[in-house]
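ok posting inputs for the adenosine-5'-triphosphate job
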Amino acid sequence: MGRITLQKVVKSFGAFDILHGIDLEIEDGEFVVFVGPSGCGKSTLLRQIAGLDKPTSGQIHIDGELVNDVPAADRGLAMVFQSYALYPHMTVRQNLAFGLENARLPKHEIDTRIAEAARMLEIGDYLSRRPGQLSGGQRQRVAIGRAIVRNPTAFLLDEPLSNLDAELRISMRAELSALHARLKTTMIYVTHDQIEAMTLANRIVVLRKGKIEQVGTPLELYNTPANRFVAGFIGAPSMNFLSGTILSTGADGTRLTVLGETQLTTSRTALDAKAGQKISVGVRPQHIRLAKPEENGISAHIDMVEALGSETVIHAHAATGETILAVLAGQHDLAKGAEVQLSFESRDIHLFDEAGLRLAG
Ligand code: ATP
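and the output
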């Protein structure tokens, strides 16, 4: 089992409140990713769960047991760090065996577990090498192997892939996913990389300044972000936010203007909105296209074009000076300085009030 429950977890360092009362339930077998900008408290939260640090107040339960006063070594969890934290003077086999020998497991059991982990992670050929003789990717596999052999209740992973180059990170990501599918053990994974979060998680916890902004599946966060922060954080490149004003709301939808010129009606009923209210209209770059000749698009001037072959990224600005980023499928003959008409479907927009909260709908 690996059910982890946090209730009103607060962590302060001196006068600084770093975690402001975190409530979260992680089910057995879930792959949960904590994501958020640097300094938002992701690692601090993971450390409270691991037992490397003690909450200032609040409760942490693992499988129903209150663990606030249980030392890290007795929580049945295994941690994997960005730095690998391997013993440099030991061979890979000794690194894998170390914790098990300390726990006084019989030798045949240790050998079986090492063989099994080595097979899963394909590190069997390196067992007699020292960490210094391995590549970064191989070291990280050993670090993951050391966690696996402990047969933990849950894995806690703190940015485990961030020391690897981009290509290796992508392949290790796929391996971690496969490993989770195979082991079916709870995994809690910290990253500031939203793509990593989207590809790995069953559920994502978005943190900002020590508070949870939203918890949901990757697509829930992508399709219905609760606020502007989540909308801007999840999805790459980041969502555009354009100034808008509500004209009217009604059963047949919400009528609004974008950038003072384009009028549109969205069926997303902004029930809480009032006519005249200033709003922020969110549109993902992938949802913006070149307007058809008969359409009343948004006029924009191109500042930069990135021709990537399969898609064309346009950096532009509207008459208001607001910037617009568009990712157009395919190749387009567009140049810096050109004026274009941009458009999008009303069903693809997200509305946020001036406080940044999603307007209902
Ligand atoms: P990153 O992605 O950069 O690793 P993070 O979201 O994991 O960031 P934390 O490492 O949890 O952030 O840190 C959150 C805040 O708590 C930071 O402002 C940090 O300076 C502060 N902090 C962390 N540990 C301590 C400590 N032992 N004493 C004082 N402040 C701390």
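notes: The chain has eight helices and 20 strands. Helices lie at 42-50, 92-102, 107-121, 136-149, 166-183, 194-200, 218-223, 228-233.
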